[in-house]
Amino acid sequence: MATVEYMGKTFTVDEDGFIDTYESYCEEWVQWVKHQEGIEELNDEHKKVITVLQEYYEKNGIAPMVRILSKVTGFKLKHIYELFPSGPGKGACKMAGLPKPTGCV
Q: What's the pLDDT band for 1 if we cut at 50, 70, 90?
């Protein structure tokens, strides 16, 4: 596994840039992924998606399917892609500190 250093923190990441463990999630990780995604500022909608992903993961041990994410947040899939240009699986789950989704997120 590779490592990423950002804002004084070191993160171990897989080949796709996902953090090695959810427990390593912190604000510095969010800022690094935000930078990688080309997102200038995180707004309340970004934070809502991240919170929903994390709460679902903590309860179920996996990321929610896109349909569930869209339903819980109230955001259409198109809007989630506007918030996270690389999508809910790659961008949003990565920013939330979740492991790389294996299914249809």
A: confident
Tokens 């990688």 found at: 36
Q: Does domain 2-95 correspond to CATH entry 3.40.50.970?
A: no
The overall average pLDDT reported for the chain is: 93
DSSP E strand stretches across 1-105: 2-6, 9-13
Q: How many Å apart are CA 62 and CA 98, to the nearest integer?
A: 8
Output the pTM of the full model: 0.92
95: alpha, beta or left, given left = phi > 0 and alpha = psi -120 to 50?
A: alpha
Residues in contact with 74: Cβ distance below 8 Å, sequence separation at least 6, in sequence order: none
Tell me if 38 sits within 8 A of 91, measured CB to CB.
Answer: no
